[in-house]
Structures are given as structure tokens and as C-alpha cells.
Amino acid sequence: MSNKSAIVTGCSSGIGRATALELTARGYEVVATARRYESIADLAVARTLTLDVDSDESVAAAQASVGPVDLLVNNAGFGIDGPVEEVPLVEVRRAFETNFFGAARMIQAFVPAMREQGGGTIVNVTSVSGIVGGPLAGFYSATKFGIRGFALCLREDLRSTGVGVSIVFPGFIRNAGMFADSGAELPRGIGTRSPQQVASAVIRAIERNRAEIDVAPVGLRVGTALAGLAPQTSASVSRLIGSDSISATISRGQREKR
Question: Which of 28, 101, 139, 140 does the annotation list as catalytic?
Fold first, then answer.
């Protein structure tokens, strides 16, 4: 990976920050980005850059400033949970603007140069909520299901160009992010992962050109696999182990931030 360039979105904390540092440690010239410059000013990477993925102008300016890259990591995003009738549609649109259209903007901006240079990698960091639905997470899951479908199609579109496209699915992340901030407690056997473990999954996606990598613990991976085959049965099992309570706690934490 030495002497390759990368741009990573959403580096203010957690997964984005860990990914930027891991790539730097492996020899990448990393441009770490976030909406608020002060949140990334201390990052020990090649360059830090203010970037709002919701803005066409901001993304275009970043592309012009950075130029071609070998790796694009779409990590910027946020949670939006709650009863469907209580979440204002303006907030739903904002979530789609960041979680889905933000990644789409970055891809449209940086893919042309990847095509021209005959190679590159796009890694989309999403969520297991892009594989399985859960209580109170309909709008959030919709953004993540959307980017998953888009990325899988894009992988086929770019298959013959030398550009790889991967999706990384974190589960419950400790130390940072909406689950950690909510204070929710998981049932025995579910488990969490760290931002550093997600960063390691990003590295595996690059090295192996994997279409999808699930970072969740084994128990949660089994649950998401079951959801793909038998969603109704999976939902029943999830309720038995307390998914309603966990989702309600996370939803309250998100509501206080809105």
C-alpha cells in the first residue's frame, strides 16, 4: 500500500479517525476530512481538509484540491431513529443527503480519475442496518440499504476497469458513535467491535477486493445472515433477546441530539 493516496470522509471521531490513522500507518498519503476542521486538526495524517459531503460545491472543491486518489473511503454518516410518525421528514432528507447522496457525490467526483488511471478502490462503511431491519430504525436502515444496493451495482459497473468497490458493515461499535453515545446495554453474547477493528476490515476490503465484509461478532453475523433468508423469523428472535429495548434506548439518544 506504500505511496498510495486516500481520502477518507467523516474523520472527526470513531471509525473515520481510526481508518485514517490505520491507512497512514500502512504507508498511505491520507487526506482526512470532516465538516468541522477543529475535530481533525490534530490528526497525524498527510493532510486534513474541511469537507461537507452534503454540498456539491464542497465536494467539487475537495476533488479539485486533492486530485486523483487510489482509495476513497466513504464513512461520513449519522443515525436517525424513532417512530416513523415522529421523525420530521426534513431530518429524513438530511440523513439521506449525508448517508446516501454524500457517498454518491464523492464517488461521482473521484471515480472518473480512477477509471482513467485504470485502478483504485472505493470502500463504503455502512452498517448491519443495511442488511437487516430493526425496531425504530426504518429511516436509518433505508439510507444504509440504499448505499448497499448502489455499491453492489457499482461494483459490477466498474468490474472491468480495475476499480474495486467494497462495503464494510459495522455492528454495535464501542467507544464512539450512536450506540456508544446512547448508553444502551446489549444482551449477553451479542458483543461489540472497536473502531480499530472496523479500520482493519477496511484494509481487508482493499487487499482482497471483497464485495462485503461484516465486522460484527459471530452471533450478530449469524443473525444478519438469518435475516437475509428468513426476515420474519429473524425479527422474532431479535425481539426475544431484547431488540425493542435496545432500539428504544438508541432512539432516545438520537432524539436528544436532533
Answer: 140
DSSP state of 108: H
Q: Is the dihedral of CA 59, 80, 200, 16 positive or negative?
A: positive
Residue 186's nearest CA partner among 229, 223, 154 is: 223
In the numeric block, the cell 464485495 is attached to 211
pLDDT beyond 90 at 197 = yes
Domains of the chain: 5-257 (3.40.50.720)
CA distance 123 to 212: 10
Instruction: For residue 28, indicate whether it is catalytic.
Output: no
Cα–Cα distances in angstroms (integers) from residue 111 to residues 8, 61, 68, 71, 225, in the given order = 14, 15, 9, 10, 31
Predicted confidence at residue 180, as pLDDT, reads: 47
Higher pLDDT, 7 or 129: 7
CB 94 within 8 A of CB 177: no
Which residue, 5, 179, 7, is CA-closest to 102?
Answer: 7
Strand-pairing partners, residue 50, are: 34
Closest CA to 8 of 197, 203, 148: 203
Looking at the predicted structure, is the pLDDT value of residue 247 above 90?
A: no
Whether 101 shows a pLDDT value over 70: the answer reads yes
